[in-house]
Amino acid sequence: MSLAVIQMVTQADVRANLAEAGRLLAQAAANGAGLAVLPENFAAMGHSDMPALARAEALGQGPILPWLKRTARDLRLWIVAGTLPLPPDGQPQGKPNACSLLIDEHGEQVARYDKLHLFDVDVQDERGRYRESDDYAPGHELVLADTPFGRLGMTVCYDLRFPELYTALRLAGAELISAPAAFTALTGAAHWQTLIRARAIETQCYVLAAAQGGEHPGGRMTYGHAAIIDPWGRVLHELEQGPGVLLARRDSAGQGSIRQRMPVTGHRRFSVPRIVAGTQE
Questions:
Q1: Are 199 and 230 in contact (CB under 8 A)?
Q2: Which residue segment(s) compose the domain that 243 sits in?
């Protein structure tokens, strides 16, 4: 079965976004996908009250979680649910996490990854200042899950700039890495493809880079260019802007051959001496 990556142009209306995500997931499933990755903030972009949305979901009063489970079950599809706001497990109050869920084909939650690295940066674009920590708390754990398509390591967007996370996922057995994102137009043009290809090359994993690609509430522009990258760093498929679905099959034998011919994990040397101010440690 194929791997699918989805690109969206999410707005603030949660139910309209879920309907659009459902349309794209159904298209993926109809074309043979067994696992599909939705982009970051697939259910809401520019929503006025993320904490309230998170509380409603945690209390079983929101639309997103029931929709996810029903859609996965109806389509017989594993879904990486980009991100949605959820409070820490067992804590319906407090600052939510930017949470990526893995839902299996029976509609059961298999894994939860809370985004580790929050996008608190200044960008010379129409918005200028991004402070994700105003709305979210960071996660604290590395997350992998076994799927019928390979062992999946879970990441989100700004995580792409921290290669040590991806090295840790590879050392823990990752074969696929999900990277749902909503890169700004400016940073995406500068760095997006370089980052997703580098993370694939250094881990020798398939990188499933779902994306937001278009204009959102408040004039925010996202870069798009959702892509599927193979373990050699080749861009198998890419979509510049607008909604759509990308599909590719995992070549497990080819991936194994790459890892055997270039055994980078066996060549790692972190015990080499460190030189500080002219002295050896």
A1: no
A2: 2-251
In this structure, how many other beta carbons lie within 10 angstroms of the beta carbon of residue 89? Answer: 10
Q: pTM here?
A: 0.94
Domain presence at residue 202: yes
**Considering the domain boundaries, does residue 141 fall inside one?**
yes
Of the residues 57, 69, 157, 175, only one is catalytic, namely 157
Tell me how many domains the chain contains: 1
Amino acid at 168: A
* Sign, CA torsion 18/99/66/102: positive
Catalytic residue flag (residue 205)? no
Query: φ and ψ at 43, to 5 degrees?
Result: -95, -20
How far is it between the farthest Cα atoms of the chain? 64
Inside any domain, residue 273: no
- Distance of CA 17 to CAs 20, 75, 195, 210, Å? 5, 18, 27, 15
pLDDT tens, position by position, 140-184 = 999 999 999 999 999 999 999 999 999 999 999 999 999 999 999
- Annotated active-site residue 69? The verdict is no
